Structure formats: structure tokens, C-alpha cells
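Supplementary Methods. Inverse-folding protocol.

Structures were first reduced to a C-alpha cell string of length 89. This string, shown here, constituted the complete conditioning input.
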């Protein structure tokens, strides 16, 4: 008899290997994120039409807060060049 062996990569949940303090930290960060997201949405909805800086910076703040919640570090390599656009009227 020939047996076919199939190599299966089983998915391991990263939350299974955490201790109590890691779970507690994640839950606290998640609760803070949900509360801050609700406040950010309400402020953006109410004041976003009148204050342009709130409308432009709220997605940036949301993204940074989400990265903090998930404990992700972003490393930027290289230079960022902003092109100057010349418009003719």
C-alpha cells in the first residue's frame, strides 16, 4: 500500500500563546480603541463639514491609533518627496 502524505500547514492562533497580562493589555487597548473610534466618528461627523483640518487629519489619527492597538511598528525607509504641482489659471 502506498500512502499519500499531505503536508498541511496548520494555522496557529497567536492569541493562544499569550499570558494573562498580554490578554489584559489587548482588551484594554481594544476598549480604548472602540471608544476613541466612536468619538472620532462623531467629531468628524459634526465638525468635519466646518473645520477642514479635522476632516483631513481624522483618518491619519484613526490609522495611527489602530496601529497602536494592534502593537504594529511601522518603519519608514527612504525619503518621501512631495511633488509641487503648478496649476495654470
Amino acid at each position: 500500500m502506498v500512502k499519500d502524505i499531505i503536508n498541511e500547514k496548520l494555522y496557529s492562533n497567536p492569541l493562544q500563546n499569550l499570558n494573562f497580562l498580554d490578554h489584559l493589555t489587548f482588551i484594554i487597548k481594544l476598549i480604548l480603541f472602540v471608544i476613541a473610534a466612536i468619538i472620532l466618528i462623531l467629531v468628524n461627523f459634526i465638525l468635519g463639514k466646518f473645520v477642514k483640518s479635522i476632516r483631513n487629519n481624522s483618518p491619519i489619527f484613526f490609522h495611527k491609533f489602530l496601529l497602536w492597538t494592534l502593537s504594529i511598528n511601522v518603519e519608514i525607509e527612504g525619503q518621501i518627496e512631495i511633488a509641487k504641482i503648478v496649476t495654470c489659471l
